Amino acid sequence: MSSAAEQEAVADARAAASDAVTGVRPRTPGVPVWPGASTPLGARFRVGPDGVAGTNFALWAGGAEAVDLCLFDERGRETRARLTELTHEIWHGFVPGVMPGQRYGYRVHGRWDPWTGARWNPAKLLLDPYARAVDGDFTLPPEVYGHVRDWPQQQVADTVRDDRDSAPHVPKGVVVHDDDDWSDDRRPKTPWADTVLYELHVRGFTMRHPDVPPELRGTYAGLAHPAAVAHLVRLGVTAVELLPVHQFAHEDHLLRRGLKNYWGYNSIGYFAPHAGYASAGTAGGQVGEFKRMVRALHAAGIEVILDVVYNHTAEAGEYGPTLSLKGVDNRGYYRLQSDPRRYADYTGCGNTLHVVQPHVLRLITDSLRYWVTEMGVDGFRFDLAAALARSMHDVDMLSPFLAVIAQDPVLRRVKLIAEPWDVGSGGYQVGAFPPLWTEWNDRYRDTVRDFWRHALPDVREMGYRLSGSSDLYAWGGRRPYASVNFVTAHDGFTLRDLVSYERKHNEANGEGNRDGTDDNRAWNGGTEGETDDPRVLALRRRQLRNLMTTLLLSTGVPMLVAGDELGRTQGGNNNAYCQDNEISWLDWSLLDDPGWRALTDLTARLVHLRHQHPVLRRRAFFSGRPHSADGLRDLAWFTARGTEMTEHDWYAPAATLGMYLSGRDIPGRDDHGAPITDDSFLAVLHAGDRPVDFALPGPPWADHYEVIVDTSQESPPATPPTLRAGTTVTVPARSVLLLRVTD
Questions:
Q1: DSSP structure class, residue 383
Q2: Per DSSP, what are the bridge partners of residue 269?
Q3: Separation of alpha carbons 484 and 195, rounded Å
Q4: Which residues pair with 124 in a beta bridge?
Q5: Residue 498 CA to chain centroid, in angstroms?
Q6: CA angle at residue 189 from 185 to 192, to 5 degrees?
Q7: SS3 state at 448
Q8: Which residues make beta-bridge pairs with 738?
Q9: Could you say which of 332, 394, 617, 647 has the lowest number of CB atoms within 10 Å?
Q10: DSSP for 191-234?
Q11: Residue 546 in 3-state DSSP?
Q12: Which is more confident, 10 or 319?
């Protein structure tokens, strides 16, 4: 007997024995499986030997004893074919006649020994980790668990194998063929310094949009609709940052309460656009629909950045379901504790992918490259990126993941954003990621919130945040745009709720209001929640203008959250991850209210001001030193007296800060090699509850000033007032004045 025949006989014998134990139906004979190729991984339709069309299937399953490919027809009937070829722990085979649209999954045979981390169970149909499309939804009945979920002794339930067939209850992968070459697409390639991010949820953005056809609302096609794109263009944002669009599953505890995972931070398919956001069906049409969305946004000059969750999967911990990786090779894909029955959890979600393993690193980088090269996206925001940067245990900025990204010819050219923390020991890494990376800067968020609720002991921290956070990022060649500045994000209060509530109101989540952070750094103006008091409402709208203006004048990359410019509210819910309803969806009728429309107008005006003035989007940190004989510096700070701040002023209690930005000494040159010059600006931020007199600095700073923005006014004046340098102006309580220097 040949070596290959011996291997096949042994594999068949092991699988037959396993089938006999589990009661799973044996594989169906008669499905031809040719050797095929071990690369690329996944299901790839192609022309095989002798010009025969079919699909090549390849699955990495280290340690497995056998792999069955399971094909499903329109009625859900299953046909199995054993993959007998094994190359470098990859099981593979070419099946002639399998065409695009074919639904499939895998059954992987091996030992059941949770005490050593082995959790193979061929009774469970597994989603291909490389599936390009997914048909169906995860409902999580007991049959989809590899163990007996309801075992009486719960402390050992995860060690008792469940032999029921999960195939009728789980989604299937779909064979997809798309030879799109993107020749008609033009990527915007917006430089980081010129970027304005807009975080949005594909479904929530258009679910209530009156000008998007009902059948397209909540879908990729809905986001691509001209009415949706027009709002983004009007605002002037340069990139949308989409909450997770990888195929994800809903957690069991939510399904039991009649809720769903709305945000999507529970990925299970890293190559598949989430089928629930497709209007084109789930038999592969979601792939083309996603691409058309990207094209439409690119045509409008808007980049597409994906929020990606490679730190954990929807399979949770040892008591979680067996959906894909856990059944393919639990020990190979997940970090396990010294007791290998348990998972190392640096994410707070039950498991952590073992990124140090080459095949796990390959899964992630293959996925990233796929979304760039074949799906057209322009960058990624990495959820809990510190978990990906861990070597064996500690966060390591020389980790395999970061090293591979830095040298990859595709990935090093796209936008890379880290959420620079995880929940493990030493996981808070703001300011520590290497060049090429930008970071969500939560110190910016906390400082700006504290300043405008008048809770800062002095203005030192505020000065750093306004000027690009050089204390965090001025090392290793990093630039001010390493800081993604934000006041709100999907996680937490909306901007309107930040000035309307001081306490979370998450009762609708069904967790007794225990979920969500208690550290909101919010101020409600003296009344909790919605009110009809015109004084409180006016104060709140002024605070909204203050926060929006501060964000868009700060050096770094501003990130807006969809709906904040409309005055969107979640009713005080600061953890609306499970609210797929009006709590989370954008309410476009707010634009009918002149007050909220004025906030939208201000947001657009500030964004366009950034685009017009390079002094507001610097590519290098300020030096703070004189660049000419008259002593003018690129950045200067002023007290309300109109004098430059001293060391004592930085440490003294204060609610007022003047920031002067010189447009005369901007580092760098334009595309033609000419020096970059711009107007100069003076921003006066006053968080006190009483007006303050502010003396406008005179020469060499300015001779005259023109008021560009005054947040104490709901609408801009028809003719901006001009003020003589040296004049003392009264800055209203809790307001921002932005003045342009004129001669």
A1: T
A2: 247
A3: 10
A4: none
A5: 21
A6: 160
A7: helix
A8: 683, 709
A9: 647
A10: -GGG--EEEE-HHHHHTT-TTS-GGGTTSHHHHHSHHHHHHHHH
A11: helix
A12: 319
Angle at which helices 400-407 and 358-373 cross, to 10°:
40
The long-range contacts involving 620-624, CB below 8 angstroms and separated by at least 24 positions, are: 620/479, 620/480, 620/667, 620/668, 621/467, 621/468, 621/470, 621/473, 621/474, 621/479, 621/480, 622/467, 622/468, 622/470, 622/555
Torsion of CA 431, 432, 434, 440, to 10 degrees: -40
Strands (E), 456-556: 483-485
**Contacts for 631 with CB less than 8 Å, ≥ 6 apart:** 700
Report how far residue 710's alpha carbon sits from residue 542's, in angstroms, rounded to the nearest whole number.
Answer: 10
Q: Which sign, positive or negative, has the C-alpha torsion 554, 558, 559, 562?
A: positive
**Hey, which residues are catalytic here?**
383, 419
Tell me the residue length of the chain. 743
Mean pLDDT of 499-504: 98
Residue type, 163: D
The H-assigned helical ranges of 261-324 are: 285-299
The highest-confidence range among 336-345, 621-630, 713-722, by mean pLDDT, is 336-345
With tokens 């990207």, the residue in question is 294
pLDDT in tens, 103-142: 999 999 999 999 999 999 999 999 999 999 999 988 899 9
* Rounded distance between C-alpha atoms, residue 30 and residue 77, angstroms: 15
Residue 22 has pLDDT above 50, yes or no: no
Give the 3-state DSSP-derived string for 31-69, with helices as H, strands as E and coil as C.
CCCECCCCCCCEEEEEECHHHCEEEEEEEECCCCCEEEE
HSE-CB at 618 with a 13 A cutoff on CA atoms is 28
User: What 3-state class would DSSP assign to 598?
Assistant: helix
Contact between 547 and 590 (Cβ < 8 Å)? no
Question: E strands along 103-174, which residues?
Answer: 103-109, 112-113, 118-119, 134-135, 172-174
CB 217, CB 207: distance < 8 Å: yes
